[in-house]
Queue: 4 jobs
Job 1
Amino acid sequence: MVNNILIVDDHPFLRMGVRTFLEKNFKDINCYETDSVLSTQESLKKANFNFAFVDISLGGEDGLELAGFIKIQQASCKVIVLSMHKEPLLVQKAKELNLDGYLIKEDAFESLKGIIFNPSDTGFILSDKLNDAISVSGKSETTRTLVSKYNSLTHREQTVFRLLAEGSNYKEIAVELGIKQKTVLVHRYNLLKKMELADQTELVKCAIKLGLIDSF
């Protein structure tokens, strides 16, 4: 049986790395590469996929929502996030979208072997480094409220929230996301309002409580 594998990432070297690893370790596979929402949608029209490995940051586009779209369009395809982002709440979002797993790029290759060799395995596939992901039910009422507010943010607002908490300035965020600084300020205003936070200090404290960044 030939496995069709879709690799979605806007960095060509990363796509090439994943493809090279897969073609070296597995026979009877066809790898397809896409780098945007549009190119992915076109590929979905041309082939049925057994596996899709999707980065959540696609040059300003929402890769997580795209992963959910792939799962809706091809329900039998195993759709797995392959990302550098380690936020537990992103893992939670992936589960809510009925995705099949979330892998961190730095330790993904060994996990990829198991996924391809055992395609019938059920359950959510998770990198070992993410096994301590947030369990909302086990948190305090205050933290559950924060999680609920955080989940009300758009994915882009969540990304800006994380980058602000990590100490990135407006210019750095704009460059990373491929947007204007004015747009960053709009996202900041909206997320502070939704989270009911007054300033950067409260934002950082909130991010620590949510497990998005380490405490000092």
Note: The chain has a mean pLDDT of 85.
Job 2
Amino acid sequence: MLSTQVENFIKYLEGSSQYSENTTIAYRNDLMQFVNFLASYKSWKDLDVAKVQSYVTELQEQGYASSTVARKVAAIKTFLGYLHQQNETKEDISRQIVTPKVRRQAQTLLSEEEVTNLLAIPEQSDSPKNLRNRVLLNLLYSTDLRITELVELKLKDYDGKRIKFTNDNGVTREFELNDATRRHLERYLKDGRPSLDKNLGSDALFLNHRGSALSRQGLWLIIKECAQRAGLSTAVTPHILRRSSDAHV
């Protein structure tokens, strides 16, 4: 199983003081996405540079920001270098993989202080809505979840440690959550969602005040309101949050 070596690599990173928890989780999520792309492969020894480059092309065609693609490629190259050091591959192809250039964007990234201020807004009270909003903002910042994917998440997609689902294109997406996000999600499921649930039988993970699934528009309004309350001059979008996270890793 390709994922076995990924998990061994993550344990190696966790034992190193060079990598933060957020970096380790980002690496795991990026590599598991790559594993899903290599569904027909049985061994990392079968991987070649052409296959990696085809994966990069697919990411670009799916609309990922150049900074996100570059981060995912960096994770793959680090992992492949590790495999070669462990004698799991005959050749270190990581040196042959071209990291795509990061295009300069007109949009302004958020500083770490601005992100901290934004994430602190739902912390001001423990209302059901704030418990929900803490999770939403943390997920947008710490994962590659897109806004449509986020509002379409089901209760069954969270297993107590990670979020895993199959999107409309038939691609399995998996995200291990950092401690803070997981803690917020557990609190929301225990104390927030039951209060929002109006016995409508919705299996949506995130509910609005009427007890039905949160909509895209509803999530956009939450982001806009929290950004305004945090006093941010930069227009905050899920894309900006993801790119800011890439810069902070």
Note: The beta strands are 162-166, 172-176.
Job 3
Amino acid sequence: MSFEMQDLVDRLYAALGTPVTLTDRQDRMLAYSSQPLDKTDKVRQQSVLGRHSDEATRPVNDFARHVQSTTRLPADPAAGRLERVIVPLRTQGHIAGLLYLIDPDRRVTDEALERFADEFEAVARQIELVRMPRSTSQAAVRSLLSTNADERQIAVEELKGCLGSPADRPSRTVVLAPPGRDHSMPFWSRVFGARSPWSEIDGLYVYLVTEDLDPDGVASRVRFAGGSGAVSGVAIGIGGSSPGLAEAYLSYRTALRALQLAKSGLTGSNVAAWDTMGSWRTLLSLDRSAAEASIDPRVRLLVASEDGTLLRMLRSYLEREKDNDELATEFHMHRTTLYARFRRLQDKYGLSWEHPEDRLATILGLRITLLYAGS
């Protein structure tokens, strides 16, 4: 029985004096408060003792299946049933569980329940996590990487069992962006380890890797898998290491940033690891709108006016990725023509790439523009 579930029913009983039970949508008993004989009824006693639906409890359960909001179920003396309040617990728009509060004295009001709204939602999320089989831990991974701290903490407890290790075991998040919907999850589970929990989030496949955490080791496994052709067209971002499951969401954030670089093709690889991305980390720590707003006005005009091929050629030139003869050959022009074109660009946009500040401003603007091209 989960502590948070038990804590909720105990707190409700202490505050309202009404015996409480909590079930999931399949009528399985999850937690119950103190049940004094003078405050309960035959139906409640049977549900607690039996912990499942029978002839006495079935009418209540059948009624509850149609409940969409807090509802009173009238008493039925012939069936030995006192009046009770049924409270559905929702998460992400659907009902995960139901609270039953025996309340013949009508102590339970909407105002009284409102004080427990946050706890209702937290327990609903926990019910969803407990409901899933541990071998299919996608819901727990999604919760672990969410922006909600309470949801993450619940997921940590659930995933400890999936990983078979303590919550403080280091991990690294790997995010894959497949070109279509036909990529085999069993294949990637072999690459990252059968015990690596995974989930699908916003069309991306997300793995928590807990073995061989060195980013080069993870990247090597991915590239080795490429021999089968399985990574063709797949962009892969490898996040920074997190000291424990509770911090895995930070690794996930860096994995998403690394994925953006991998998708851009600017490094010549479809795999990018946060730990080895160098100065790209600084640019990707800004959100897209902030990064684009930071571009020098002259460079912003340049990238808006010139074609993508010229921008890629200019970035290679300014960052000295290749010598000028090699660059001219790649873009099918004479070296003199290359220099002349770059001189015209400087004159046209008021830039001087001999000046370190102008050169850096142009490199940053080109990187930001090409990083998000096509996104």
Note: The CA atoms of residues 119 and 333 lie 67 Å apart.
Job 4
Amino acid sequence: MFPNAVRLQPEVGVPGSRASMNPISVISRLAQTPVNVAAFVWPGTDTDNQVTNAGTGKPLGFAVRDESGIIPNYLQEYSMQVPQGFPVQVAQRGEFFASSAANVASLGQKVYANYGDGTLSFATSGAPSTNANITASTTSGSNVLTVSANTGANIQVGQPISGAGIPAGTYISALGTGTGGAGTYTMSQNASATGAGVTVTATLNVETPFVVERGGAAGSVIKISSWSDLA
């Protein structure tokens, strides 16, 4: 295997790896579907044993690099994915390297987990990302949300939603004909009113116990910690 790039300085670490020798708290689960490491996970269908990279509410933890690597594809150089049915080590406490793929990470910011894929983003506490560019219709007593337009981020399973006729605490529980934009989606609760042209707001991510301890530009390797007093 020959290198295809040369760096003047090594990276500070590999996303998903421990970033210090401070105590960690890790639980073991199985991948219900292929799970990406260095991303957050939620309980799967078997809540006591399985995890996935998508969910609603608080994530179970951060999937870490603590297993032998598996490279399933011919000539693939590396993989950060755990195949279905294989063990996943889920960190609930500790200090780890991660990737700031979504946006710039600054020292002291809280780490947020995307409901749809477990990827990380960063902001001040109590400031999750939202998409208020969804136009939809509802029918009283029905759990079907019919989206006619979405000019913001993709609608994904697990995202909490709000709007006229949508009860508090409702989230997207399944995709219908929609795959992120216009189409139908299943809500976790029935609509309380019938409406057309309803402006719906979706919450895209959820705050986690982790804090940025070493920031960086988008795409760089950063350090996150659940032990920090910075937040």
Note: The chain has two domains: 25-126+207-225, 130-203.
